[in-house]
Amino acid sequence: MADVSLRAIKKSFGKVEILHGISLDVMDGEFVVFVGPSGCGKSTALRIIAGLEEITSGELYIGGKLVNQIPPAERGIAMVFQSYALYPHMTVYKNMAFGLKFAKTDKDAADKRVRQAAEILQLTPYLDRKPRDLSGGQRQRVAIGRAIVREPAVFLFDEPLSNLDAALRINTRIEIAKLHRQLNATTIYVTHDQVEAMTLASKIVVMNQGRVEQVGAPLELYHHPQNQFVAGFIGSPKMNFVKATVTAADASGLTVDFGEAKPMSIPFGGTTAKTGDSVTLGIRPEHLGEGAGHAMVLTGTVEAVEHLGEASYVHVRRDDGVILTARSPGDSRAEIGAKAAVSTDIAHLHLFDAQGQAFARHSKADAA
Amino acid sequence: MPMVNRRVNVNRIAVHAALIFYTLIATFPIALVLINSMKSRSAIFGDPVALPTPSTFDLIGYQQVLEKADFVLYFGNSIVVTTVSLLLVLIAGAMAAWALGEYRFKGNTLVALYMAIGIMVPIRLGTVSILKMIVGMGLINTLTALILVYTAMGLPLAILILGEFMAQIPRDLREAARCDGVSEYRIFTAVILPLIRPAVATVAVFTMVPIWNDLWFPLILASGDGKQTITLGAQQFIGQYVTNWNAVLAALSLAIAPILILYVVFSRHLVRGLTMGAVK
Amino acid sequence: MTSIAMAADASVGRRRWPTHIVVFLAPAFLVYTLFSIYPLIDTIRLSLYGADETGQQSFIGIGNFVTLLTDPNWSKPFWNAFRNNLIFFAIHMVVQTSIGLALAALLSLPRLKGAGVYRTLLFMPTMLSVVIIGFIWQLILSPLWGISKGFLAALGLGSLFAPWLGQEGTALITVSLISVWQFVGIPMILIYAALINIPDDLIDAATVDGAPPFYVFWVIRLPLVYPTLGVVSILTFVGNFNAFDLIYAMKGAQAGPNGATDILGTFFYRTFFGYQLQAGNPTMGAAVATMMLFIIMVGVLFYLFGVQRKLQHHLA
């Protein structure tokens, strides 16, 4: 068991800097998910922790020990690759036992471990098969098994579910969560899928363009995104953004003009925002309802309606062309082309400055 | 920190040392011939590894070669034979590969296998009959004889490579054309041919190099009457003037220089073509 | 409406005699049949004929083969050429394949600087004519020029020098090594292509598993290129048992000294074309060619049904 610390880690390939100084602490036993759009550097960060990429500058500690120059095999890690990386010419058994050869595990102990892992992963009947004879899900489990037998202090997963079909992906996701509870090993998991991140992580690291945008528990990121990028990335469908201008600011709140009939006061008091500043309002679709029933009302024309059964998403185009997505009940009667109003409770508003940084919202207690 | 780095560096240096060592083995003999072809006879023997200096520089060998043998003509012959054969192989090969890959008809597999025999069985072994036939057709000592034989020789591999390549062209493209009512011939010329251009490099390597370098068929089918290819011409010339070192070295240089220049210019494409062919 | 009409059209077109297929296939099929397959079959037919003084040919069954294998005038050079050809092939398999493999392994190292330049230069000899290569090496090894002697002397090995090409004991080995020098590029490039096609993840996984680099090569990468080694072997086999140019260029049709470098290709040429005072014998030549064809077919079939099957089972 071990914790992992990244200290100002930078990585360049030639002249191109991929990671611009990542600092992060992963506690022992934590399940940390790196999430971000492709090319954000999350896989590079993982490969650095594995020791597959050299660190350009900065320090990496695993279990309190500086491991910058320690080869991967001696870091106490095991990695599950996106492509599974099973050795095609070896049986399932040999694939799983391969790493133990070099860990100086004696034969009987190695055999026991492999069989145990196979049992946990329901692979026992397939031990003598070769990877080509297995289904995608089974291959995935062999890849996980190969990691388990090494009894690593830290598990590394590189987009392990992206090659599976949707149904299998959900199953395997649950299996991985269960496995983590059983083994209680520190786990670092890379994905571009925010649903995977939300469901698996005890802590999410949102990355963008080689930087960490925010670190936090899933719900913390959902409720308190520190910037517009995180706000837009976490949550589905995406958060709506509405441009607005500050018309008055004092300790109790801000008054913003957001393109409707008259400006409105919102509970973001005591911030650095001044009159005349451009800001962006953030409203999650699930907090935006059809009709003018809530305090903040926005208007436009219905552009599209998606009926999902348990809910409907109504897309409303405002006069400035911005499309808002509102979550309505499943039987929404919204008609395409009709004028419509959508509204939200100002307690659910997010507010970002011109640079995309979030302003702190008064808690409900404050507002009351 | 520096420990691992140093180990890596030492390994890297060893790798480069090994590669440079073998690169020297591979290129030195060629360089030696090129260098010495431009030196006087005494310098060739006096210090073979030295580059030509103003005092040892001498093009007497080239002068003699160009006087005594018609190398320009041989070049022309080689170029005609190689390019015409390549063109025929490409056109006929692409058509056959298309027919075999695109249309399901009775005997498709059989014809495909039949066309593949030539990949493994060298056409050379049929020389006795080929000679008889070429004599019978009155084509002995003509470039046409060589072109026909080389086209037959190059087709099997070309069909294989082009077929693999065509298989990667999305089916939808041809189906779309068919839905538009385009004829099969138009589909081939207007849709397929432009798309297989990248495979042409691969086919060219596999077809042209063996033809350009072949000694056997020129020796047997067209060894006189000024129909020699460059390879045969150089062989005959050198056999005749073995003791004239300047001339021999110049003849060798003349025979390899164009290939070397072309190779260095196109090496990226060539090696990519080879590796691509190899992947299949 | 139009779409229905079109569908009907297409089905009619399908039932019609498929002229276009014939048009597409005909050129390749005709040229290939006439100048490749027909000559091979005709050669086999000719091998069953004999010729009298006037050149009149008559069917003699397997007479030529009986002569070839039992008449000492024929069988001795034939078996000599066959044995030499086997040695020629064995040297290629051992030396050429291992050097090719080693170079490919080095070239395929990740992030190797100058890999493209190495590749270009290492493959260079393979592009050149065998004849030219033969002459180049003849010059280099010639005691007259003395450049190889000078090199060995510089290394303190001057006493090792001998006219290798001229001695019966060393000529075949020397010629084989020259051929290896020229053609090592082919196994190199084929194995290289196979090696770079191994997914990086596999190597990364082995690294994480703690396998040392050499072990990764022997246990992961090498087994994954076995099928390519199979292809290399059969290409080498066919090429070697069909070789002619190099020996003809360096040692002439007689493949001296005293037949020491005679292989089936040169034997075939002499039989068919004759040399010096000996007249050529087309039907006997056809018999030799048929024997070569037989040997090559045995090799190819062994590869297709023995080696390749096993390799496919081992992988894929």
Our count of helices of chain C gives 15
Distance between the termini of chain C: 49 Å
Low-confidence region ranges of chain C: 1-14
Strand order of the largest sheet of chain C: 1-2
Shape of chain A: elongated
Number of helices, where a helix is a run of at least 4 consecutive DSSP H or I residues of chain A: 9
Alpha-beta content class of chain C: mainly alpha
- How much of the residues of chain A is beta strand, in percent? 25-35%
Domains of chain A, number: 2
Could you give the order of strands across the largest sheet of chain A?
6-7-8-3-9-10
Mean pLDDT score of chain C: 87
Number of strands of chain C: 4
How does the major sheet of chain A shape up? 6 strands, mixed
Fold topology:
The complex is a heterotrimer of chains A (368), B (280) and C (316).
Chain A: E1 4-13, E2 16-26, E3 31-35, H1 42-50, E4 57-62, E5 65-66, E6 77-80, H2 92-97, H3 107-120, H4 136-148, E7 154-158, H5 166-183, E8 186-191, H6 194-200, E9 203-208, E10 211-216, H7 218-223, H8 228-233, E11 240-250, E12 253-257, E13 264-266, E14 278-283, E15 288-290, E16 296-307, E17 311-317, E18 323-329, E19 339-344, E20 350-352, H9 364-367
Parallel strand pairs in A: 3-8, 3-9, 6-7, 7-8
Antiparallel strand pairs in A: 1-2, 1-4, 4-5, 9-10, 11-12, 11-14, 12-13, 14-20, 15-19, 16-17, 16-19, 17-18
Chain B: H1 2-36, H2 41-46, H3 60-68, H4 71-102, H5 108-120, H6 127-136, H7 143-167, H8 171-179, H9 184-195, H10 197-213, H11 216-221, H12 230-240, H13 245-279
Chain C: H1 2-15, H2 19-46, E1 49-51, E2 57-59, H3 63-70, H4 72-107, H5 115-127, H6 130-141, H7 147-154, H8 168-183, H9 185-196, H10 200-208, H11 213-224, H12 226-240, H13 245-251, H14 264-273, E3 274-275, E4 278-279, H15 282-314
Antiparallel strand pairs in C: 1-2, 3-4
Helix pairs in contact in C: 2-15, 3-4, 4-8, 4-9, 4-12, 5-9, 6-8, 6-13, 10-11, 12-15, 14-15
